[in-house]
Amino acid sequence: MTMVTDPVAAAQVLAVTGGVDTHAEVHVAAAIDAVGRELGHASFATTPAGYAALLAWLESFGPLERVGVEGTGVYGAGLTRVLQAAGVRVIEVDRPDRKARRYQGKSDPIDAYAAARAALSGRAAGTPKTRTGSVEMIRTLRVARAGAVKAKAVAWNQLKALIKTAPEDLRERLRALDGAALLDACVALRAARGPAPEHGPHAKRHRPGVLADPTAACKRSLAVLARRVRALEAEITDLDNDLEPLIVATAPTLLGLYGVGLDVAGQLLATAGDNPDRLASEAAFAHLCGVAPIPASSGKTERHRLNRGGDRHANNALWRIAMTRLRYDPATREYRDRRAKEQKTNKDILRCLKRYIAREVHRALMADLTTPSPT
Q1: What is the pLDDT of residues 309-344, one digit of tens each?
Q2: Residue 364: which of 242, 243, 260 has the closest Cα?
Q3: How far is CA 338 from CA 235, 283, 323, 345, 346, in A?
């Protein structure tokens, strides 16, 4: 642990604000007083003992009011849990922008002091997710599911691309098939093999025999890819079986909204977190989802544009709700037609729809997550 401390400033301090620049193996903490004077900085290991030492070090300067932490959902997640368990107010701090770094320089202590000053001044005021309830369980399961879905898509694309370049007789057998029938046919393929080598360093490795020709190699690859798709489908089904009861028990009100299914609800829950009270209002939730209107007026033209910031996964979830309603809900289609007569563009109409949906979703989330779910 490295440490730099100003004993004169420490003797005069009344209230302390901490800042932490987080990394995978070490966190760098800094302490400032109520007027922003630097009291010291130190580095600590990212272990339970290191977290406890970091907290004790900050408290050694005086009453600890708040700690600004970079990356509360990534490298700083463990430290955030320890600080919150100790009753310390934790503030989520974004890393300094590039312009500020060009003027101030870049080092871990500089970033830690910047985090502390952002927390002290109120420039950073975000409350991190608690990550201790059912929503955190849903989020972690969705991480595994998303990886399985992505891997399945890759395997499917590889399988279909391989069929397009397969030997003609094999391609003719498979080209008209799709879905489960194609997987069944590929899994059933058997590759012809010749005799295994009897001598040499690789004889043992090739006991099953050497693949006979390019057709055999293609059959072997197709069978492997088809089995991979099947295995990934089983993974997704298992994860869905775990996710469904969790989401249903956690967000019954949210699931009752038109166009909200299990996948959309899971994403919106993960965006809000276990403690939705950290969102001061439905407008704050709209900003978090990137659907709050952004002024884009100039001269005599007064308009707003789509927000390209925020959580894009949550933005996509709201887009899916809007698309479902535009397709199946008569009231939504009537609203679209009415706004189109007002010379609104399709982008403007969609922006307005997502903003209204965000308001509904926020009310549903608050109703679900502020009411203890049955166990």
Answers
A1: 788 999 999 999 999 999 999 999 999 999 999 988
A2: 260
A3: 45, 25, 17, 12, 12
Domain C-terminal end among 195, 220, 242: 242
- The 3 state secondary structure assigned to 31-62 is EECCCCCEEEEEEEECCHHHHHHHHHHHHCCC
Q: pTM value?
A: 0.80
Last residue of a domain, one of 185, 216, 242: 242
Indicate the number of domains in the chain. Answer: 3
Tens-place pLDDT, residues 274-294:
887 788 788 889 988 998 877
Q: What angle do CA 38, 128, 105 make, to 5 degrees?
A: 40
CB 24 within 8 A of CB 46: yes
Query: From its phi and psi, is residue 54 left (phi > 0), alpha (psi between -120 and 50) or beta?
Result: alpha
Q: Residue 9 belongs to what domain range?
A: 3-121
User: Which tokens belong to 5?
Assistant: 């401390």
The pLDDT assigned to 375 comes to 45
